[in-house]
């Protein structure tokens, strides 16, 4: 979704779920080789870009969750991925313009939902339009890969894709309506710490198996192929994640998984109605944040 005038642009930055994540090993460049299925969901941040003539990049963050604003406020300086993305595009294209960027945060941080990456990808797409930089999608994806492994997916704007390499090799696929329940602990997880606990995944399934299951008339086959190779180290690192996943495994979800590198966990539901029922049940069983989401198609 977007709205624009010549000097202003508004974009949504959807979160993602990894319906599958297999770690194939560590590369010489220090990144991990992965095979993953990324699915955009209807939970999103919103960014408003306003043109500046002086070349400055100013970021302001507004929180829809008051506890996040007070407990874990994000930086607004050059260390923020949004500012990094804006600077990278500005320098590559040698544009004289800057931007005032307002970011409304709804996606929780340190959850494995890709909030920071989604914001950076939306920034590349948004400022490419606002500044009339004229970069094609391929170039935007190459820029995104310089910023982080998840960001090419968000810069491309796919609803669903199989991502390989370190995440930059993408094969878009047709998405389908799926309902989810997501539970976010108050504590986060370090992505580096979680990855360091997983040298490679041992399960035989691949991302292709998930794509094939998604294209079947009945999605029940997903339960046989959705996997996350980071789940076991995350469970060992965080007792709350272990407790939540155990609790969710006792509910009638189609399948339950860790979100990316955590700390959020999610369940795949048979229907929208079931997602609302299971969310209410989990809200009565845990003090953690519980919410429902749907796939973007």
UniProtKB/TrEMBL annotation:
<dbReference type="GO" id="GO:0019288">
    <property type="term" value="P:isopentenyl diphosphate biosynthetic process, methylerythritol 4-phosphate pathway"/>
</dbReference>
<comment type="pathway">
    <text>Isoprenoid biosynthesis; isopentenyl diphosphate biosynthesis via DXP pathway; isopentenyl diphosphate from 1-deoxy-D-xylulose 5-phosphate: step 3/6.</text>
</comment>
<dbReference type="Pfam" id="PF08544">
    <property type="entry name" value="GHMP_kinases_C"/>
</dbReference>
<dbReference type="GO" id="GO:0005524">
    <property type="term" value="F:ATP binding"/>
</dbReference>
<dbReference type="InterPro" id="IPR006204">
    <property type="entry name" value="GHMP_kinase_N_dom"/>
</dbReference>
<keyword id="KW-0067">ATP-binding</keyword>
<keyword id="KW-0414">Isoprene biosynthesis</keyword>
<dbReference type="GO" id="GO:0016114">
    <property type="term" value="P:terpenoid biosynthetic process"/>
</dbReference>
<feature type="binding site">
    <location>
        <begin position="108"/>
        <end position="118"/>
    </location>
    <ligand>
        <name>ATP</name>
    </ligand>
</feature>
<dbReference type="GO" id="GO:0050515">
    <property type="term" value="F:4-(cytidine 5'-diphospho)-2-C-methyl-D-erythritol kinase activity"/>
</dbReference>
<keyword id="KW-0808">Transferase</keyword>
<comment type="similarity">
    <text>Belongs to the GHMP kinase family. IspE subfamily.</text>
</comment>
<dbReference type="InterPro" id="IPR014721">
    <property type="entry name" value="Ribsml_uS5_D2-typ_fold_subgr"/>
</dbReference>
<protein>
    <recommendedName>
        <fullName>4-diphosphocytidyl-2-C-methyl-D-erythritol kinase</fullName>
        <ecNumber>2.7.1.148</ecNumber>
    </recommendedName>
</protein>
<feature type="domain" description="GHMP kinase N-terminal">
    <location>
        <begin position="80"/>
        <end position="157"/>
    </location>
</feature>
<feature type="active site">
    <location>
        <position position="150"/>
    </location>
</feature>
<dbReference type="Pfam" id="PF00288">
    <property type="entry name" value="GHMP_kinases_N"/>
</dbReference>
<dbReference type="InterPro" id="IPR036554">
    <property type="entry name" value="GHMP_kinase_C_sf"/>
</dbReference>
<comment type="function">
    <text>Catalyzes the phosphorylation of the position 2 hydroxy group of 4-diphosphocytidyl-2C-methyl-D-erythritol.</text>
</comment>
<dbReference type="InterPro" id="IPR004424">
    <property type="entry name" value="IspE"/>
</dbReference>
<feature type="domain" description="GHMP kinase C-terminal">
    <location>
        <begin position="228"/>
        <end position="282"/>
    </location>
</feature>
<dbReference type="InterPro" id="IPR013750">
    <property type="entry name" value="GHMP_kinase_C_dom"/>
</dbReference>
<feature type="active site">
    <location>
        <position position="16"/>
    </location>
</feature>
<dbReference type="InterPro" id="IPR020568">
    <property type="entry name" value="Ribosomal_Su5_D2-typ_SF"/>
</dbReference>
<keyword id="KW-0418">Kinase</keyword>
<keyword id="KW-0547">Nucleotide-binding</keyword>
């Amino acid at each position: 979704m977007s709205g624009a005038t010549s000097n202003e642009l508004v974009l949504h930055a959807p979160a993602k779920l990894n319906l599958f994540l297999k770690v194939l090993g560590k590369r010489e460049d220090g990144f991990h080789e992965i095979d993953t299925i990324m699915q955009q969901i209807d939970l999103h941040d919103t960014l408003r870009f306003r043109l500046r003539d002086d070349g400055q990049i100013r970021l302001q963050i507004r929180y829809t969750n008051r506890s996040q604003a007070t407990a874990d406020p994000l930086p607004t300086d050059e260390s923020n991925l949004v500012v990094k993305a804006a600077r990278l595009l500005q320098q590559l294209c040698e544009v004289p313009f800057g931007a005032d960027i307002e970011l409304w945060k709804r996606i929780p941080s340190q959850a494995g939902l890709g909030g920071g990456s989604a914001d950076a990808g939306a920034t590349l797409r948004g400022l490419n339009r606002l500044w009339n930089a004229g970069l094609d999608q391929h170039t935007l994806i190459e820029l995104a890969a310089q910023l982080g492994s998840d960001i090419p997916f968000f810069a491309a704007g796919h609803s669903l894709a199989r991502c390989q390499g370190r995440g930059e090799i993408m094969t878009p696929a047709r998405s389908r309506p799926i309902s989810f329940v997501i539970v976010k602990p108050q504590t986060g997880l370090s992505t580096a710490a979680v990855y360091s606990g997983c040298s490679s995944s041992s399960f035989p399934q691949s991302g292709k198996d998930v794509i094939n299951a998604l294209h079947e008339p009945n999605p029940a086959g997903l339960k046989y192929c959705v996997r996350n190779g980071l789940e076991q180290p995350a469970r060992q690192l965080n007792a709350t994640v272990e407790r939540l996943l155990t609790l969710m495994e006792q509910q009638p979800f189609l399948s339950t998984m860790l979100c990316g590198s955590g700390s959020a966990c999610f369940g795949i539901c048979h229907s929208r109605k079931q997602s609302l029922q299971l969310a209410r049940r989990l809200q009565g069983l845990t003090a953690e944040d519980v919410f429902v989401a749907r796939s973007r198609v």
